Amino acid sequence: xxxxxxxxxxxxxxxxxxxxxxxxxxxxxxxxxxxxxxxxxxxxxxxxxxxxxxxxxxxxxxxxxxxxxxxxxxxxxxxxxxxxxxxxxxxxxxxxxxxxxxxxxxxxxxxxxxxxxxxxxxxxxxxxxxxxxxxxxxxxxxxxxxxxxxxxxxxxxxxxxxxxxxxxxxxxxxxxxxxxxxxxxxxxxxxxxxxxxxxxxxxxxxxxxxxxxxxxxxxxxxxxxxxxxxxxxxxxxxxxxxxxxxxxxxxxxxxxxxxxxxxxxxxxxxxxxxxxxxxxxxxxxxxxxxxxxxxxxxxxxxxxxxxxxxxxxxxxxxxxxxxxxxxxxxxxxxxxx
Length: 337
Hints:
With 337 residues, the protein is of the alpha+beta class. The chain folds into three domains: 3-163, SH3 type barrels, CATH 2.30.30; 169-222, no CATH class; 225-337, SH3 type barrels (Roll), CATH 2.30.30. 18% of the residues lie in helices and 21% in strands. The chain contains eight helices and 17 strands.
């Protein structure tokens, strides 16, 4: 069957957050993919093979995704979900440590009832050492090389705008109704996300058309994060290790480490991250390499960053985006307890 024929006969599963699903076998999923290892321009990656055959819970329905490549706002995603506990381990992409939440097309899943027994034909899941080798998937993790010979990688993150090409403006308020309908968020959370989005649009207009002295809070977006450093931003090495307890510094302390683009040595700090200021957290891991989603180049960090346990972007300030990216923290933004 062609891709068009597969899509035309595959019914929507009508999934909601909390639903139980079973990831189909590698062979079943491979049958849905085109020659690029994709379905509707969304790659199925080798890192996802470890989940084949497993029963998992729908964490969020991927109705939309924020554009982290060109910062054009939200884009509409169709027939896809995020599953609890399924993040990319980067094993097929040079060891990238970004830990992106994986997108799963409905065609790769089957909805099951909790009381339904596991069938003998359903595999129990494949660990990284025993998963099958599928040349189609391995070949399509790369797109040639750069001039210096470095590998140019491709993944769901680098191809996200092909998989979700249609912008989803804030004025399409039906998206927020859908957020509640599928169980991604509650009504109050969604209402706040909409109001924050509307406020940020007004602030953007004020920065273009209103004299500086008349702007509200200098025309800053919600969260009111403003970099204070005009030259080279400072750095600090704490040599934090997994398991250590830290406290996120105050907004004022962190703003004193940022330039006018809200960067510290090239690493951004945003309003979503500011929600964690003053909180304590456990160090999950150190990060020294990640994939540049714009270019596909694997970057090695001169200043390693920190991932904190149970700390993700909730979408509160990004139009209720369900993707839950994992933020990277400079050590200078943290203090050891």
